[in-house]
Amino acid sequence: MTPEVAPLVACPFCGDLTGEAGRCGGCGRNKQAPRRSCTNCGKFTPSAEANCCHCRQAFTSELAWKVPVIIVLFIAAIVLSVAVRML
Ligand SMILES: [Zn+2]
Ligand SMILES: [Zn+2]
């Protein structure tokens, strides 16, 4: 039985060559997971994680500020509709 020779894929996150494409032997992350480069250290870090896996820099998503704004607008709309009805 010959072991399946998979091309060694260096983990884009920790550089480890062990494990498989779906799971790094070093950090346990999916080597093919969506990634982005850190604005602080420039290394790749999984897009799914909120902090850089190298320098722990927190990412602020472009949506982060919009969510509270939408919630506040939604509450304001409800309050306004109630207030208008009470007039
Ligand atoms: Zn890794
Ligand atoms: Zn970083």
Explained architecture:
With 87 residues, the chain is of the alpha+beta class. The chain has one domain (19-86). Helix content is 24%, strand content 11%. The protein has one helix and four strands, in the order ββββα. The chain has one helix at 66-86; strands spanning 19-20, 23-24, 35-37, 44-46. Strands 1-2 form a two-stranded antiparallel sheet. A two-stranded antiparallel ribbon has the order 3-4. Strand 3 (35-37) and strand 4 form a beta hairpin. Bound molecules: zinc ion (ZN) (2 copies). One zinc ion (ZN) is lined by residues 11, 13-14, 16, 24, 26-27, 29. One zinc ion binds at residues 38, 40-41, 43, 52, 54-55, 57.
